Amino acid sequence: MSTESVVERHVGHRARLALSPAQIEKMDAQAHAARALWNLLHDWWTMTTENRRVSLKDADAVIRQARKDIDFLGVLPAQAAQAVLKTYFRAWQNRWSGLAGEPVFKSRLRSAMSVDAPQGRHLNITRVHRRWGMVSIPKLGRVRFRWTRDLPVGKRSDDRNRVTGARLVKDTLGWHIAFRVQTFEPIPEPRTGPQVGIDAGIVIPLSLSDGTTYDHGRPAAPHAGGYGRPGKMVEPSRESPAISPGAAGGSSQTAEKTR
User: Fold this and answer.
1) What global pTM score does this model have?
2) Distances 47 to 40, 43, 50, 52, 126 between C-alpha atoms, Å
3) DSSP string, 158-173
4) Using CA atoms, how far apart are residues 73 and 68, in angstroms rounded to an integer?
């Protein structure tokens, strides 16, 4: 297949993680360390002047040393720490390009807890059941996640179709993993058939410009009998109950006696 007939797509897929209480505690510690590292970088950046900005190389060396000297930063994996640094520098580049505002401090209460796993080849994603898969998370080991969509892993993965990374995010329902998926799909060929216009309505649900109409497949309520509007579709369970002849006759005899 030629490169002109395919298009590159980057999509995300989010799945729920099945973590034990001990694993949840470790993930919370990593997320707090990532948030603290962001705030330290922001404090360092704002302390310097425009002529003495921190370089990416110097910041990476300081982060490596800080993970060795400071215990609460040591729980954060090295790849996740580098991802925080690159994300912070990218935030300033977006600010200079006019795409976003200036980076700010991340509050413990208002910011979402998240940890990056940027290396997709280290995830080792496998499917072990129809509804469950396994993924390797740094400093956490093998973890189960809910399999709700086919991923380009194993025999389905190659240089083009693969999982490039993941991001672990915590919300009110717990920890989830968001996979970054790269796929190459063929470009659909333009349709050469005739064109048709579609009009949506109430009495007639769909009307095409060539005269074809489509309905819901339910009978319309009879208007002459006295119930329902013309053309109104009714459910079988909502139809008016039929009056038996015996009941109708009994009512007329009662009326004659009254007279």
Assistant:
1) 0.68
2) 11, 6, 10, 10, 46
3) -SSSEEEEEEEEEETT
4) 8
**Residue 112: CB partners within 8 Å, gap ≥ 6?**
169, 170, 171
pLDDT at 202: 85
In this prediction, residue 99 has a pLDDT band, given cuts at 50, 70 and 90, of very high
pLDDT at 180: 93
* Angstrom distance (rounded) from CA 84 to CA 68: 17
Structure tokens that stand for 172 in this block: 């009110």
Residue holding tokens 């074809």? 212
DSSP code, position 129: S
Measured CA to CA, the distance from residue 123 to residue 138 in angstroms comes to: 8
Let me know if 115 is exposed, middle or buried by CB neighbors in 10 A (0-12, 13-18, 19+): buried
Give every CB contact of residue 223 below 8 A, 6+ residues apart in sequence: 229, 230
Tokens of 239: 């139809």
CA distances from 117 to 13, 36, 161 (A): 14, 17, 18
Which residue, chain included where needed, has tokens 């940027």?
118
Task: Count the Cβ atoms, other than its own, within 10 Å of residue 22.
Answer: 9
